[in-house]
Amino acid sequence: MYVPKHFEQSDPQVLQNLIRSSPLASLVTLGAQGLNANPIPLYFEANGGLGLLQGHVARANPIWRDFDTQLEALVIFHGNDAYISPNWYPSKTEHGKEVPTWNYSVLNVYGHLRVQDDPLWLREFLEKLTQQQELGLAKPWQMSDAPDDYLQTMLKAIVGIELEITRWEGKWKLSQNKPSREYQGGIEGLNQTQNAKAIDLATVMKNLRTAH
Predict the structure, then answer these.
(1) Chunked in runs of 10, what are the mean pLDDT values of the chain (212 residues)?
(2) Cα(21)–Cα(27) distance, rounded to whole angstroms?
């Protein structure tokens, strides 16, 4: 991924927070038929190194049998994104030398994939993932809410996967290369769109500039 220095994001906590807030990622592997991309919700587990990504796929999905163990797999996480109009920049009215762009945050994670075909591992992983996603709900669902025989049947239909992270690349393209008044104009423009995703991105931009 092309990452200009001013868009580089390498803070481990920020990268981990993106994984937790946007866990649905694209897992890209190389198999017998070429590249294969699967959308999978993943859980970040600290391990003393860069960490692990844990998930599960349907047993019928060939991905867990068909990947190159010698090559790194790629996992892509996307944060909020939004279109940025040149009309939001004060300098546009002065000289017109502004063009549209797109702001976004994205994280590429690389690592070696392994299969976890173990009911105990699966159950422990699913408990963690469920607790993370149910957090904040008025009445959080728990695995114990479902009949045990039903859970056993469901567990037999899935396979666990785990990626040991070897490296990651974070790109937060959020107008950091713009002067303060243009940057603020972008934030104000996003807030005026009445689009929830765009407004969330405006908050991220505001917090980013405040942090620096």
Answers:
(1) 95 95 97 95 94 97 93 96 96 86 97 96 96 95 95 96 97 95 96 94 88 60
(2) 17
